[in-house]
């Protein structure tokens, strides 16, 4: 029960419902999903996948520092919204990762990420067919995690 590493097949259903509604299932597979360094994670309770995310090696320069990991495809079951599952999942992810990471956060998720230790970097940008996003970063520091 709780946080665990899973297979790509375990993250696709929530990606489809939350991140790519109305699109074909093929839109739920991201470049890099099958890379040997990519890891998929889920928050699972009694066999039910409640929240998912993928972590890929994709370095980005932020404030003069190389941030090596990218979080992609984070989604939580909409039926469970407001119960703190996404925050518990993200906290477990912070503890699992050995480094800082960044993500492209949907505009509607920025406050959630800020409450969970991420900082917004730069201006908004549009991902065609998906919507407005911001780059956000979680910087692991001594004593965090």
UniProtKB/TrEMBL annotation:
<dbReference type="InterPro" id="IPR000182">
    <property type="entry name" value="GNAT_dom"/>
</dbReference>
<dbReference type="InterPro" id="IPR016181">
    <property type="entry name" value="Acyl_CoA_acyltransferase"/>
</dbReference>
<feature type="domain" description="N-acetyltransferase">
    <location>
        <begin position="1"/>
        <end position="141"/>
    </location>
</feature>
<protein>
    <submittedName>
        <fullName>GNAT family N-acetyltransferase</fullName>
    </submittedName>
</protein>
<dbReference type="Pfam" id="PF13508">
    <property type="entry name" value="Acetyltransf_7"/>
</dbReference>
């Amino acid at each position: 029960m709780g946080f665990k590493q899973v297979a790509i097949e375990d993250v696709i259903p929530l990606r489809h419902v939350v991140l790519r509604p109305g699109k074909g299932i093929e839109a739920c597979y991201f470049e890099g999903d099958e890379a040997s360094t990519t890891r998929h994670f889920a928050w699972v309770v009694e066999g039910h996948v409640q929240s998912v995310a993928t972590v890929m090696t994709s370095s980005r320069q932020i404030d003069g520092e190389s941030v090596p990991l990218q979080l992609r495809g984070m989604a939580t079951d909409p039926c469970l919204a407001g119960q703190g599952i996404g925050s518990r999942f993200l906290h477990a992810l912070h503890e699992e990762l050995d480094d800082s990471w960044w993500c492209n956060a949907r505009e509607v998720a920025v406050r959630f990420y800020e409450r969970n230790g991420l900082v917004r970097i730069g201006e908004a940008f549009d991902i065609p067919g998906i919507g407005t996003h911001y780059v956000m970063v979680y910087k692991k520091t001594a004593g965090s995690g």
